[in-house]
Amino acid sequence: MDFMARLKRVAEKLGYWFNWVAGAGLVGMMLLTCSDVVLRFFDRPVPGTFEIVGFLGVIVTAFAIAYTQILGGHVAIDYLVARLPQRSRNAFRSLVSLLGASLFALIAWQSCLFARSLSISGEVSPTEKIPISPFVYSIAVACLPVILVLSVDFIRSLGQMVKK
């Protein structure tokens, strides 16, 4: 098995497992919201539901991105690109993948910087006093498989462009 195939396999496995984390977060959001609704009927709402659901929303969104990229599930408008010659399409895909990987690397880096500042300042949620920095760090961690997937896409598209 060559290096690119291994790299692609690692990216897909990471994306797959991160998607399970996102799914668990979604189930948690659903259970918490349903519990809160039912317990409100008995005048016993779950404290901090709004905050916790918001934090879980961060997990769901961030951790689902890599697997969605693997499946090609992001919105794409190929109307103009589809009309280009194959070599130009591969060049365009390479550029888009490179820009995407760069963007997610920037997001990961800035998320780490922001999470560190939140951690140093001791920033917590207003009601339940939950530290915010771990959730911002999780965004940075969730960017890593996205960067890997986009890098693999970049190298593959570049290789196809050079071949033809």
Characterise this structure.
This protein is mainly alpha-helical. It has helices spanning 3-41, 49-71, 86-121, 133-163. The model has no long low-confidence stretch (mean pLDDT 92). The protein has one domain. It has four helices and no strands. It is elongated. The longest helix has 39 residues, at 3-41.
Would you summarize the structure shown here?
By secondary structure, the protein is mainly alpha-helical. The chain is built from 4 helices and no strands.
Note the topology.
Blueprint: H1 3-41, H2 49-71, H3 86-121, H4 133-163
Helix pairs in contact: 1-2, 1-4, 2-4, 3-4
Structural features:
about 160 residues; elongated; mainly alpha
Order of helices and strands: HHHH
Q: What is the typical, i.e. mean, pLDDT? A: 92
Using only C-alpha atoms, the radius of gyration works out to: 20 Å
Kindly estimate the percentage of residues that lie in beta strands according to DSSP. Answer: under 5%
Given the helix and strand composition, which structural class is it? Answer: mainly alpha
Number of helices: 4
Indicate the percent of residues in helices. over 70%
Low-pLDDT runs of 5+ residues are: none
DSSP summary, beta strand count:
0
Number of domains: 1
CA distance, first residue to last residue: 23 Å
So what's the overall shape? elongated
Major beta sheet summary: none
